[in-house]
Structures are given as C-alpha cells and as structure tokens.
Amino acid sequence: MSSIAAAPTRLIKAEGAGNDFLLGTGGWVRRLIDDPELVVRLCDRRLGVGADGVLAVERISARFIRITHRNADGSPSAFCANGTRCAARVAVEYLDCSGRLRIETGWAEIPAHVKSEGVTIELPSPDTPIQHTLDTDAGAVTGWLLQVGVPHFVIATTDLAAIDLDSVARPLRYHPDLGPDGANIHLVETSADGRLAIRSLERGVESEVLCCGSGVVAAALATMADTGATTLTVVPISGDQLSVEAMSAPPMTPSRLCGPARLVAEIQVLD
C-alpha cells in the first residue's frame, strides 16, 4: 500500500535534545522532498516556522518507515541521527507504527526503539575513522575525522564554554582536507565526572546548533578510542543528556544512541 496515500497529511514540529525539525507525512512528503525553496522558507526562524531541517516520513508498514532529510538551507543530507529519532516518535504517535521499527535513511537502515522516556537508534560502524591534523592559518589542529552517515571532525579542548566556536570552527568547516562538501565541526571537553560536553557547528544550518545527534556519536566514539571507555554520557548545549554505547571496540564499531525526542506542535501552513 502506498504510504503517502494512506497516511494523514500533517506537518509536525519535533525536537531531539534541542535539535529541531519539521516532519511531514501524507501530502507533505513529496513537497518536502521536491521543493528545497519551500524547505528554506519553512526553516527560516523569522519568516517561517523555524527548524534545523525537515524530514519527509513515509509509512511502509507498521514496523518500517522511510525518511528523507533536508537541511535548513534546502540541501539534501544522507543522515540525521536526531531527525531519525524524531521520525521514529512521529511514526509511533501519528502513523500507527510499532514502538520497535526500522527506518530507511539515505545512509543505512536504522533500527529504532521508541519508549516514553526517549528514542534509541542503532547505528552502523563509522566509515574509516582516523586521527587527522589540519593545517590552518592559526596553526595545526588535530582531531578525529569520522563518517557517521555524514562527515564529522571532532576536536578535544578545554574551557569549552568560553570558546568562540564560530572563530574556531568556521575556518575548518570547508577545509580542503575534509572533502568538497566539508564537515560538521565539533569541540568536546571531558568533565571531572566523565561526561562529555559538546558544541557543534552543523553543515546545512551553518551555525551552532543546540545538538547534532550524529556528531554526538562521532564525538563519543572518538573519545572512547582515546580513553578505552565503551559507554559515554554526552551533554550538548541544550543541557539534555544523550547516551552512546559502543557495541564493540571503538571507534570502528556499531553503536547505540539514546536520548529525548519530543513532539512540539502541529503546524498549519498558510500559503
């Protein structure tokens, strides 16, 4: 059965640990997939609804959905971890899906488990994670480069809250060593209690975001590789806590990401 024909036509706002999205079902699916200019207008925080991106959510069966993600600038994205977790929540609440389901993304098929307190997803191993040094005008910067659906460059630092993220991350965003489309840039700091604080400049949003889910996974796996840990609590600037569990030896390992995914509102767009 066609998921587009069967599903209700709704535009829903949701957020995962502060990473916010507009998720479309039914008649919204093709609009969000086919019209990047509409996506830009909807995601504008002054002239539109406001969001870090959109996801078209198609119900294939009670245990299987397909999602298509676009960033706030209208560009397509192979994967968005917090968006995937929010899509799982929408599938259960609006599309009569099971609390345990699989989600087809542009990167991989992702198992998800929706519970009252949060949504857990299982991710494949990152592609060829390496420690890498980038030469910049301000000097050499060493970090971990990992592909968790999309590329992430993770830099360990101290005094994270006081750093001007834009001045540090912006010159690295399109560094030639990070590929033609650049990478998401993350600065992380391990606290005395073992938790990992993170700040993220996200591609397609082109500014600091309250959370980047795949960046949380990349940062956790990179930190685990350096410390030997296999579980880690990560705290983005939203203040929410997410847990990352390595399923084998980090960083080249499948992982689980668990955190909050909340429905915010249903949107009626006035064309």
Structure explained in plain terms:
By secondary structure, this protein is α+β, with helices and mostly antiparallel strands. It folds into 2 domains: 3-123 and 261-267, Diaminopimelate Epimerase, Chain A, domain 1, CATH 3.10.310; 127-253, Roll (Diaminopimelate Epimerase, Chain A, domain 1), CATH 3.10.310. Helix content is 21%, strand content 43%. It contains 6 helices and 18 strands. The protein has an 18-stranded mixed β-sheet that branches. The radius of gyration is 18 Å and the shape is globular. The relative contact order is 0.17. Mean pLDDT is 95; it is low at 1-5.
Order of helices and strands: HEEHHEEEHEEEEEEHEEEHEEEE
Average pLDDT works out at: 95
State the separation between the terminal residues, measured CA to CA: 30 Å
Tally of separate helices: 6
**CATH topology call of the largest domain:** Diaminopimelate Epimerase, Chain A, domain 1
CA radius of gyration is 18 Å
Q: CATH superfamily name of the largest domain? A: Diaminopimelate Epimerase, Chain A, domain 1
| Percent of sequence in beta strands | 35-45%
The CATH class of the largest domain? Alpha Beta
Number of domain modules: 2
Features:
alpha+beta; single chain; Diaminopimelate Epimerase, Chain A, domain 1; 271 residues; globular; disordered N terminus; 18-stranded mixed β-sheet
In short:
The chain has helices spanning 3-6, 28-34, 36-43, 81-94, 165-173, 213-227, and strands at 10-16, 19-25, 53-61, 64-71, 76-77, 100-104, 109-115, 118-123, 127-136, 139-148, 150-156, 184-190, 196-202, 207-209, 231-235, 242-246, 255-259, 262-267. With 271 residues, the protein is of the alpha+beta class.
